[in-house]
Amino acid sequence: MRKSIQRVWLILPVVIIFIIGGFLYQGLGKDPSILPSNLINQPWPEFSAENLFDATKMETKQSFVGEPALVNVWATWCPTCKAEHEFLNTLKQQGVKVLGINYHDERQLAIKWLAELGNPYDITVFDPNGVLGIELGVVGAPETYLIDADGTIIAKHIGELNSRNWPDLESQYLTLMRDYNNAK
Fold first, then answer.
1. Beta partners for 126?
2. Max alpha carbon distance in the chain (Å)?
3. What is the CATH number assigned to the segment(s) 48-183?
4. Do 88 and 161 touch, CB atoms closer than 8 A?
5. pTM flag (> 0.85)
6. Which residue from 55, 64, 167, 176 is spatially nearest to 122, judged by alpha carbons?
7. What residues contact residue 140 under an 8 Å CB cut-off, 6+ apart?
8. Cα 59 to chain center, whole Å?
9. Which three-class secondary structure state does DSSP give residue 129?
10. What residue ranges do the domains of the chain occupy?
11. pLDDT in tens, 56-100
């Protein structure tokens, strides 16, 4: 009896290490840029915010609906936003509708930034206090949402959007565009 208890105590740490290792191994295959969001399959939140270029023009949820689009949360203070910006310009040139939310930023810096780097956005909302960002659960810039024509959030990508990770969103976007074009 005493020997079997000793064996259990010898084997137990090995079993615990394998269990912990299994959990860690499971986490290695996960993409950290894809975080679960309570907003997936939910409507885009109602909002009213100034247009970045024209403070007298108010943008609302209705500005974002009508056809599938990417909605990109960005800021001039964000180095990762700058890294992804050229790719967003490429998507725009390919006909992808891209909407922007300028997050916790200064208007004049944002306007200058877009003038220098190109403007991939059909509409840019100015969110200097992060109010819309809070509604979306933004944890930091950049974040990109894929919405359908009705404004339902289909997917959320955290971090730089680029040619390596775009194919995951692209397949969903192309499906939405096909359905949208077939419904016209």
1. 50, 102
2. 83
3. 3.40.30.10
4. yes
5. no
6. 64
7. 78, 158
8. 20
9. coil
10. 1-30, 48-183
11. 999 999 999 999 999 999 999 999 999 999 999 999 999 999 999
